[in-house]
Amino acid sequence: KSKEKSGTYHHFFKSEMSDWSMESIYLENALYKALENDELSLHYQPQVDSKTNRIIGAEALLRWNHPTRGMVSPIEFIPVAEETGLIVPIGKWVLLNACKQLKKLHAQGNSNMSVSVNLSGRQFEEDDLIPMIESILVETGIAPEFLHIELTENQIFKNTHVTLEKMREIKALGIKIAVDDFGTGYSSLGYLKNFPIDTLKIDRSFMFDILTDKDNAAITSTIITLAQNLNLNVIAEGVETAEQLEFLMAKNCFNIQGYYYSKPLPVEALENYIDILTPKV
Ligand code: C2E
Ligand code: MG
Ligand code: MG
Ligand code: MG
């Protein structure tokens, strides 16, 4: 409590810091430089319509190639970026680059593809979130319906009032909103009625042992039925095997993202993947 009183106390606390906080201070400084030094990049994971085997979209996933540590997982550095607020400039960079890349893919003839971008709840605390998104759409010339924003339930409910208002503004722009990791949050289902949501993404944890695990099978089926009855789109995430795919297709879930089709890919590899999937005659 007396921490804020003087720098001496601050110093004292520092010497007591855990490895975990040392690590996060290290990451914070390194991440700060990462943006300037071009160490960040985006990989894209294809989303495929399993009925036609055509690509419908791709999720942009952030990658950090650290000069000495190599690839650092977003699971590790996104929380640091959120705590420090660095997620705001990084998130803007992600959105701009994902939209630029989509523009390129559209120009190459994949004119129905969408791009999904993960937004952090922290970005919704910024007053200029909506103008920022709007200006990126204008700058890149992407039609709003091809931009899909992903938010987890926990992010939506961290600051519900502010987030809901901004979600409505995003929706009013014509952008689509998906609930990421659906089924893992702690919220009631009632919100699906009042929130401007287009898509449910079934969390990949429910794909595990789906043929033998009765609970995972029941949860997955229920989410698909729920989406169908509420007129929402549904995407299954983390689909790795033909058996999982068959299970999902038997329940009329055809939008698939997962290693079964492809891991997240660097842009050149994504372009090759699309060409293989949809050969041009
Ligand atoms: P997410 O949005 O739920 O992304 C899906 C994660 O599942 C990705 O991990 C992806 O590589 C992984 N995945 C996809 N298919 C499979 C599969 O078949 N099997 C397995 N085992 N894994 C699969 P990744 O790329 O490590 O991203 C982790 C999380 O980091 C993301 O989860 C998202 O919450 C966050 N993240 C990534 N990029 C961004 C970003 O630009 N902004 C924000 N705010 N968060 C991001
Ligand atoms: Mg996501
Ligand atoms: Mg997810
Ligand atoms: Mg996730």
Automatic annotation (TrEMBL):
Coiled-coil stretches: none
Official protein name in the record: Histidine kinase
Residue ranges constituting the EAL domain according to the UniProt record: 24-278
Recorded superkingdom: Bacteria
Span covered, complete protein: 644 to 924 of 924
